[in-house]
Amino acid sequence: MEVITNKIATSGLITLDLTQYLPEKESIAAFDIKPFLFKELILKEKEYREALKNHDWQIYQGKHVAIFCSTDAIIPLWAYMLATTYLQSVAASVHFSTPDTLATEICIRHIEAINPEEYTGKKVIIKGCGDKEIPEAAYVAISTKLLPVVHSLMYGEACSTVPVYKKKA
Question: 21, 80, 88, 91: which one has the fewest Cβ atoms less than 10 Å from its Cβ?
Fold first, then answer.
């Protein structure tokens, strides 16, 4: 009887799933300045300062916070700085960003923290399918990180990959 061999298991391929670098949705919070504006258009300093003092900052505890304004108003730069003074003591991090952009930024930071030496000379597949949407920037970041060290870089699944790069002999 012939022994069936799993060629994928013995191929030395490493599959890297970028979803592991995505932040959890619950870990990101939004701080929109829009509700603090007079008629959602004008920032009045005295009222803004008072509203910030009375705001419940604990809802941002331990979260990555995106500060932005969702309306087309002219916001003085100090307004973002002032909100940051309240957020700094409770949030995990504070960014001038939208929540979606912040999720991408955090994903990129996690990818940048990868030790590329773990992939030196390896055949790496960047997993292509999954439940969560991966930002395009993550694929660029992982390629930039791994191309200098890998033997080959592919996209997809072990049974069906798209070759992206192969080191020349």
Answer: 88
